[in-house]
Amino acid sequence: MSAPNSPAVDLQALAKQAMRDNGFEPDFPPQAAAQLAALRTHPPKIAPGPGVRDLRDLPWSSIDNETSRDLDQVEVSHVLENGDTRILIGIADVDAFVPKGSPLDVHAAAATTTVYSGVRNFPMLPEQISNTASSLVEGDDKLSMVVEIVVAEDGGLRSSDIYRAVLRNRFQLTYNTVGPWLDAPHLAPPAKVAASKVVQDQLTMQDRAARALKTARFRHGALNIETIELRPIVLNDQVVDVERQEKNPATDLIEEFMIATNGVVARMLEARGVSSIRRVVKTPKRWNRIVALAAECGTKLPETPDSKALNDFLVARKAADPDHFADLSLAVIKLLGPGEYVLERPGDPDQIHFGLAVQDYSHSTAPNRRFADLVTQRLVKAVLASAPAPYTDNELDEIAKDCTQRADAARKVERVMSKRIAAVAMSRRIGETFDAMVTGVTPHGTFVRVLRPAVEGLLTRGEQGVDVGDRLRVRLLDTDPARGYIDFARV
Known about the structure:
Strands 1, 2, 3, 4, 7 and 8 form a six-stranded mixed β-sheet that branches. A five-stranded mixed beta barrel has the order 13-14-15-17-16. It has one domain. 37% of the residues lie in helices and 24% in strands. The protein contains 13 helices and 17 strands. The chain is of the alpha+beta class and 491 residues long. The longest helix has 34 residues, at 393-426. Helix 1 packs antiparallel against helix 13 (393-426) and helix 7 (197-219) packs across helix 8 (249-271). A hairpin with a 2-residue loop joins strand 9 (229-235) and strand 10.
């Protein structure tokens, strides 16, 4: 076993190797340098003009992680006389900087996604583009695609529109500062928010609209699920612990606007008779086990998959046992199975996104980080310009399959690196006992996740007769940071 602070545990090198092991090319091709040089010499014109509105005077703001530089989305809103809220969501115009068929586009098509390894990000596009040229960073004029929605007080969508614009992000904010204030507005707002009454009013208005959108989705059976993401705590270039990243009203706000935007884009392409790529979570793979989990909590679910009934159960469990709700959510997520990208042709039967309770769901809000979103942006721009679709149905079908396969591969990279990071952090705690939950029962073994800290490992002793969702008490037996192994025994 490797010592936790051993120089042999080079997480940066292991991350790069994990990329290659899963079919990614972590480095950009030589031709990329020439394309970037040409971009520096002849950048796209960033100015209003025919078909491009001037929205730079509006008080746009973004909310993202503290470390994010590849900003894809900004928002601004105002309340109408009838009480409805008009919300504008600006999406980075990445296509303006990455022409279809260019070397960087070919690389992006092969990668299909930015991969976040915990110790290093492997961007789908070079940082000169994703973090600078197209990123909606504070204070710069930027090209964008704007999705405009009017949200009624009950969360229904009154109307929508899509157009190109130049805008300027005036308030670059973060989830961890905005979220707690939205959750408890009687507290003092964060410094940047406190300095502007305009941004305070904007955030309050947007939060109210986002809550209405979320309530409306729940009425239609969207699942109230909490996912768990871990962030390494680094001291003197060494991982010393991991901490859980919590959801809050700011993350919910951005999520609701993202879902609404993706729905508007999907319906616009459908209405114009344009094929597109959709993201769906189909019927759960192991509904019978979800039913069994609910029965253990005293709730009877229907024998056939029913997202509304499942969400009612989840809402009740969150109210009854909020401390363990994330663990139940994780079990449900595992049993639902992963989503996939599919080709959607005009007139095809609707494919509902089981987890979101929406039928129209494209991916369009993160073109700096997901190739499917960049493809969707090109489809929308072609419609706005009354130009032919830039992709055939066969091409879209192949892209959808590639995006699904690469998303699976990216999760493998992120999972193995999360395990390695966790193994480094947990190597100091061998012999301790923890509360845990079973997260997977596979031919390769039975896996459990410790509740605090939220790390996952293999149950090497006492795994007989357990299933996903079972609660256990386990002892940490050993760790191998280089291979990401964390071994537990049932006690």
